[in-house]
């Protein structure tokens, strides 16, 4: 099993916390985590990275506004502005490490970021997988999303535990790990700078992450879209919409699966993903 290495690298005048695994001689995959309270590269991808790093060079940054990446005080007041800064962050990570071109995997908010990256610098990316991705067009925010976006109106450990359980279809898959997951995430969300960032970028509607159809139809990259049928944070109609408008996209909907495909259907998704990136699927 490849080791997970962590470090800080300078990006856009601040330091980005980066998880890295696998040989830099291999093709690079960049993993982009979601936007829930306490999210980070390690909390989203810790158990997923080893399945990829045997054959790929894997990079997973703490996206600006989350985790151990610096939290600058002078930041945009809209999600669209934050997305632009995050696009610049990922491109800067690639430049600093000499990565000319990479594959992308984006979960939830990270999926929207992946599409913004392709929209901004299409020649820097090869194949893209979206998982429970934001950025499509759905029927509107669910009650679960409202609770997530407004978490700091009642930031209790019980509220965070509920959110964590709602992310999966079957909470038993988290088993005895749930207590540690919630404690780790709660400690993270109660950091002053993390709260400041979260409240800042969610002060505007998550709908600002949506990708225009005019942009989607110009993304000729191969896309693998994965979604849990029981996802209540980003409902499957969003991915169906994306598959209909991206010209080279395939869609896989997992039965009995919520928002965290990489946890509930890890092995099945890994197989799909590796075959897709190796152009064998």
Question: Could you list some keywords that capture this structure?
Answer:
281 residues; alpha/beta; 8 strands; 18% strand; Alpha/beta fold hydrolase; Epox_hydrolase-like; hydrolase activity
Please summarize what this structure is.
38% of the residues lie in helices and 18% in strands. The chain has 281 residues and is of the alpha/beta class.
Overview of this structure, please?
By secondary structure, this protein is an alpha/beta fold. It has a single domain (5-277), classed as Rossmann fold. The protein is 38% helix and 18% strand. It is built from twelve helices and eight strands. It has helices at 41-45, 50-53, 79-97, 109-120, 143-149, 157-166, 178-189, 192-201, 213-216, 237-245, 261-264, 266-277; strands spanning 5-11, 14-21, 28-32, 57-61, 102-107, 125-131, 223-228, 249-254. Strands 1-2-4-3-5-6-7-8 form an eight-stranded mixed sheet, sandwiched between helices. α4 links the parallel β5 (102-107) and β6 (125-131). α3 packs across α4 (109-120) and α6 (157-166) crosses α7 (178-189). GO terms for molecular function: hydrolase activity. InterPro entries: AB_hydrolase_1, AB_hydrolase_fold, AB_hydrolase_sf, Epox_hydrolase-like. Keywords: Hydrolase. It holds the Pfam family Abhydrolase_1. Residues 29-139, 192-265 form the AB hydrolase-1 domain.
């Amino acid at each position: 099993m490849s080791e997970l290495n962590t470090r800080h690298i300078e990006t856009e005048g601040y330091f980005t916390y980066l998880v890295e695994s696998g040989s830099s001689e291999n093709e690079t995959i960049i993993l982009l985590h979601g936007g829930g309270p306490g999210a980070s590269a390690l909390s989203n991808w810790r158990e997923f990275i080893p399945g990829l790093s045997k054959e790929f060079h894997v990079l997973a940054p703490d996206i600006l506004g989350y985790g151990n990446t610096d939290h600058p005080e002078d930041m945009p007041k809209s999600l669209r502005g934050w997305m632009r800064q995050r696009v610049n962050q990922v491109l800067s990570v690639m430049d600093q490490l000499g990565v000319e071109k990479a594959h992308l995997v984006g979960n939830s908010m990270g999926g929207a970021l992946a599409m913004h990256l392709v929209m901004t610098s299409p020649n820097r990316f090869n194949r893209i997988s979206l998982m429970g991705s934001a950025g499509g067009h759905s029927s509107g925010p669910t009650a679960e999303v409202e609770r997530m976006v407004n978490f700091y109106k009642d930031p209790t450990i019980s509220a965070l535990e509920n959110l964590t359980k709602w992310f999966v279809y079957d909470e038993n898959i988290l088993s005895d790990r749930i207590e540690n997951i919630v404690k780790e995430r709660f400690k993270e969300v109660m950091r002053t700078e993390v709260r400041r960032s979260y409240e800042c970028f969610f002060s505007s509607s998550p709908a600002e992450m949506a990708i225009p159809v005019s942009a989607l139809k110009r993304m000729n990259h191969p896309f693998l879209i994965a979604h849990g049928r029981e996802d209540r944070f980003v409902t499957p109609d969003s991915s169906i919409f994306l598959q209909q408008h991206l010209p080279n996209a395939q869609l896989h909907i997992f039965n009995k699966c919520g928002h965290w495909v990489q946890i509930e259907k890890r092995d099945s998704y890994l197989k799909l993903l590796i075959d897709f990136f190796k152009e064998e699927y």
